[in-house]
């Protein structure tokens, strides 16, 4: 080989589930026990930017996250690297006189640099954006000729929810039936333009790292929660259908009812786990009460809320007007410098604050 460096840079936003994934039927392949649906955030806000580079002068695979080197020996990175390398195809850049055959890809080493434009430890689904971006950038670099759904099955093996970040708009992760996971893929339900009145507001209640990781939390719930079995079999399949209809017809009242109910059931499953898992805290509960009270006082709901494996609230307002009203209400209940930080995580147009 001549000495050269080939690079690709990609940017991937994070996604927030409105029908939650909680529980694996296969921990190695990361196969879920139910379908899930999410909304992908605007790439200008919470996103990961990753540059991948390959060069014959690199002596080993290395990765940096926000400027700090981390080990690639974790199983999740190894599975993804193996899957991508096995699908690499011949590459040629005649101008630069670079030729890499399918076989060469297995011998060449990579350097990967990734940045999150939001706090990595804040429980804002950083692994979803990170793993999706890792897979997408590597697939481009290694000339992998597979569509986003096929790539989603690889991202899934890095972090389950990452498979949904390969698409914008509303995305469904189909649990699939095959043992090898080849049909457990993400598909786009509607693109980002389909329902662009919605405004997403994130209230950071705590930026502390969660005490129970989603991996161990899910394992404990699968082993001990009867409510989780009931949810996966009897509740989610119907909810998925209703949510697809609500999204297709932009029915905000149904969307809100389903989103809030599903977040609350997910946290009920956490309480039903032995020992119980507490992801939300008092501030999260006060935010729920504030939104519920307001929704009930209006003719039709104004805001949906949902909480992942942490206390931070993700609120989806029906339009800019209700987003502005929501902020006023929240600022009244939680004045500046209190328990939550609102200003830094208003997604979309910041002028709604004025
Ligand atoms: O993909 P993980 O292991 O980070 O799990 C994500 C779990 C939830 O965020 C709570 C739900 C979801 O569907 O994203």
From TrEMBL:
It comes from Tripterygium wilfordii (Thunder God vine). Performs the first committed step in the biosynthesis of isoprene-containing compounds such as sterols and terpenoids. It is an enzyme of class 4 (lyase). The chain holds residues 6 to 359 of 419 of the full protein. GO terms for molecular function: ATP binding; diphosphomevalonate decarboxylase activity. Residues 200-354 form the Mvd1 C-terminal domain. This is Diphosphomevalonate decarboxylase. GO terms for cellular component: cytosol; peroxisome. Keywords: ATP-binding, Lipid biosynthesis, Lipid metabolism, Lyase, Nucleotide-binding, Peroxisome, Steroid biosynthesis, Steroid metabolism, Sterol biosynthesis, Sterol metabolism. Belongs to the diphosphomevalonate decarboxylase family.
């Amino acid at each position: 080989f001549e000495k050269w460096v080939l690079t690709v840079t990609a940017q991937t936003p994070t996604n927030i589930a409105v029908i939650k994934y909680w529980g694996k039927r296969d921990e190695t392949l990361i196969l879920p026990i139910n379908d899930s649906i999410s909304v992908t955030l605007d790439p200008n806000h919470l996103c990961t930017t990753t540059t991948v580079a390959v060069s014959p002068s690199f002596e080993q695979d290395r990765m940096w996250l926000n400027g700090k080197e981390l080990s690639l020996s974790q199983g999740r990175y190894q599975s993804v690297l193996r899957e991508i390398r096995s699908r690499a195809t011949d590459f040629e850049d005649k101008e630069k006189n670079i030729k890499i055959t399918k076989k060469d890809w297995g011998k060449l080493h990579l350097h990967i640099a990734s940045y999150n434009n939001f706090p990595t430890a804040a429980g804002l689904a950083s692994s979803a954006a990170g793993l999706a971006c890792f897979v997408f950038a590597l697939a481009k670099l290694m000339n992998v000729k597979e569509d986003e759904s096929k790539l989603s099955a690889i991202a899934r093996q890095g972090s389950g929810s990452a498979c949904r970040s390969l698409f914008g708009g509303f995305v469904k992760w189909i649990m699939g039936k095959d043992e090898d996971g080849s049909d457990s893929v993400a598909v786009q339900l509607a693109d980002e333009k389909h329902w662009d009145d919605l405004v997403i507001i994130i209230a950071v209640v705590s930026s502390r790292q969660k005490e129970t990781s989603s991996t161990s939390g899910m394992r404990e719930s699968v082993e001990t929660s009867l409510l989780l079995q009931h949810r996966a079999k009897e509740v989610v399949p119907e909810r998925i259908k209703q949510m697809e209809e609500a999204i297709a017809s932009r029915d905000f009242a149904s969307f809100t009812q389903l989103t809030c109910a599903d977040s609350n059931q997910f946290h009920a499953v956490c309480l039903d786990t032995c020992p119980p898992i507490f992801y939300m805290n008092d501030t999260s509960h006060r935010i729920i009460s504030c939104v519920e009270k307001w929704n009930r006082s209006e003719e039709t709901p104004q805001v949906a809320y949902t909480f992942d494996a942490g206390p931070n609230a993700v609120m989806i307002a029906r339009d800019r007007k209700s987003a502005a009203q929501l902020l006023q209400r929240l600022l009244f209940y939680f004045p500046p410098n209190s328990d939550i930080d609102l200003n830094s995580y208003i997604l979309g147009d910041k002028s709604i604050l004025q």
